[in-house]
Fold these 4 entries.
Entry 1:
Amino acid sequence: MAYRGVFIEWIEEWSQFFDYCNWYTFHPVKIEIEDERNMGGLEATIILLGLGFRIRWNYEETEQVRDIVRQVEDIKRDLDPAATQGD
């Protein structure tokens, strides 16, 4: 599983208004920068009038990340033992 690298996510908040929802979340303006040192990542979110993006750079694989990856692998193995036989 590759952890390091850059990930980009598109954010679109307008479609929620065309369906029934329990609540609506809309950001006229949102600018957020997060340095998540525990997980070895730097993230920025920019939204203007309900359209925006989130970009994350995972610069380091920390011990916490390795623990989570091991947990995911254990869960996958428990759910489907045949899926991990080729690894």
Entry 2:
Amino acid sequence: MNIPGCSIEVGVTRAPVAPPPSSPAKLLTDKDRMLPLLRAMSSKSVRDCISWCTEELTGRVRGELLTALRALVDPGNVARVEFTTYDSDDGNGPHWQQERFYLHHKDGTVTLMEYPEVGEDEAFEDAYARYVDLLDEYSGLRPPLDGAHLIVDLASGEFEESSRNII
């Protein structure tokens, strides 16, 4: 059988071809395999790829952040969590406030939640640390404008970003 572009020459030794990755994820996370592919792509295609990856990561971070919030507050009594911004010291502009946020209760009341820096409940502290990391990552993926509000609906999982004051 003849395959276009391929030939077999008796007595010729060819360098082995790298085995295919065990999964597509292995290809995408292996810089040595990925760089030749990226270099062959147009700039627009690379930007599109970055955009798709960022969308996927943002969705994952939202899901993990929702889970973390549900672990920190009582979703039986709290309908939504609202975050405001603060100007970070890292020079990267506004971030979502981590230590202070508003709880919108199902009965219509709103309370300001302020978490202490040190607590005695180790499980809570671990959950809080995970939440802080995720909210910081979300700020990097979707940088908020100064004065913006982020409202997370604990039941539906919807994230709403707004520059108007809800309270």
Entry 3:
Amino acid sequence: MVFWYLGLFILAFTLGMLDLPPFVTFLAITLYIIVSIPYIMPLLWSKDTKRMFLYLQKSRNPYYRFLYYLLNGEVDSAGQIANKMRAGYIKDMALAMLFLKEKQFGEARDLLLKMKEGTFKHYYLAVISLEEGDVTGYNNHRSKVADKDYRTWLEVEEHAIMGNYSEALSLLEAHISKLRGIKLLSATYYRDELLKRKKVEEG
């Protein structure tokens, strides 16, 4: 990050020395920011899942470290980090995902119901309803999920729950090509999980 600021300073200084029109200077700096952001903050716009995973691994942010271990299948390590987080919304998010990973739907539901209204809350409550065969609950929570990507993932899960893994994976693959950043990383992880489930169920 320090080098990014250094690069921005050098660019601005050089443009100033060249005495270019303000519009050209503004355009050059804007272009620098747009082009470089995916490299210094890959969770926003990057399409490089390896770079994003490495970013999570090296991050000092507890939530990002939690995600790294959770996505890597190291549930115990993810749990240790989640339990040490400062009390609040981020910790509740981490614990809810951890409970769902371990199929502890009752604990996850209790925690989610206490959270503020939003896509995260209703998406995962919809997932729990699907797992438990609660059609009314699923439709209720799904209707409150505003994010189109999350709604697509629910559609994918509908196919998977019914055993239609080919349709689920086909839909997810088509959707992955449109994603960037953390959503792309989440979707590729979800795809890997679906493949594992398909393998187990089909023997």
Entry 4:
Amino acid sequence: MEKEEVQKIERFKFRVTPLNLITAICLVACGFFVLEGFEGQVNRNFNDLFFMLCILAAVVSFVSDLIFRRSIPILKNLWIVETALIVFTVVMILIIKTLVF
């Protein structure tokens, strides 16, 4: 009976990962755009755009975190892979930004 209880506790153990943090940051940004946003009527479209982009980023990071958790059971390796994904994404965004603008 005790082994089953321990397995239930271990199964629901919360592990913090980099993509969890990204999801939380995106949701906080969504809350900012809903409650505060930018000043002025002209920037209302930008509020909606940034809100939708934050929701999309939160959903993508949440789903990719679930996929990585299923495929990589060791927490240390999970951190390495997710951090590499985040760094790769940021570098690609910066490269594309410099090429376009």
